[in-house]
Amino acid sequence: MKTTLIIIGLLLFYTSAAFSAGKAAPMLVEKQHFTTKDFTTVSGKKIAKVDIGWESYGTLNKAKDNVILITHYFSGTSHAAGKYNADDALPGYWDAIIGPGKAIDTNKYFVISSDTLVNANWHDPNVITTGPASINPATNKPYGLDFPVVTITDFVNVQKRLLDSLGIKKLHAVMGASMGSFQALEWAVRYPDQVERLIHVIGAATMDAWTVAALEKWALPIRIDKNWQQGNYYNKERPLDGLAATMLNITQDAMHPIIYNASFPKFTVLDQGALNDIRTLPQLSQTLATRAMARAKTQDANHVLYLVRASQLFTAGMQGDLTSALKNVKAKTLLLPATNDLLLRPENMRTVYKAMKAAGKDVEMSEIEGGWGHLDGIFSISPKAQLISDFLKE
Question: Which of 75, 114, 178, 181 is catalytic?
């Protein structure tokens, strides 16, 4: 019992640390809209029109050299900090470190973040993105699976067009977590002269067989949902059951058993309903299913499939040789893997750290401790605030 209470206390501590900064005097932000045309993907396909949402915090200086780009994670959005309205339940996911006087000080830096292509959260009114659910101008119908496969590089190239439109040619830093770390590293590899600092959080530099297979488990429930219909479900019944199952998989894979178990203090293994009737789900499963369905209703199933594919195809610089790709990096680099991460395991980044050191790169690594697992990169980031602040000043 004592151990359980300690773990629950840690859960409350990390949640409070991540979000408390937004409670007193929230930084109010506004979603903005960027459009670009005739975008060519890595695969050579053209998208006639691309729309993405973006938001910023702080003020762009006259020289336009105080810019920090934040690139978001798989199920995230551009909402990295602040609130849209003062009475919003929670601020953006990294509000603990982004804002006036915080590690990423918006009194000093102009912080910008954008929704990715094929953002999962199609039904969230605060998300603007182009993907399979968008109208194909050639047919006036949703693209569905006719939308071209897109990659992490494509996400970065859309962001570059956004920054170009604002006259921004240099990044003081680029920072991202999980899938956001893929984008941040891709920036440093593909545009080395434009990126001065790289902060790579709970990420990877290339996919391995284990991770590609793990990601396919996120896609499978959608593909076998009877309503998916090979992606042709628009204006029909949505494949919500499959998408909810995908949300269950993502949530469990992103959490360590320490916090996952602590989240259910009333769990009992001898569930009476499940014991009496095979058709009755255990209470735990019922609770998880309800939460997952609520999350699924904000998302588009095809968009999730495209995000899975973009992640599965990721390797820095889209080169077969990771060592050669890492040699392109000129940015001063800070690697922040999570010690208890079971999804993007820290040993992979330890290998990358050694490779960058051997190549003479200016790189340091500090592991994030905590009980969240992969999600420590979001909820346990506060203890790294001083390290991040100092890294940005150097």
Answer: 178
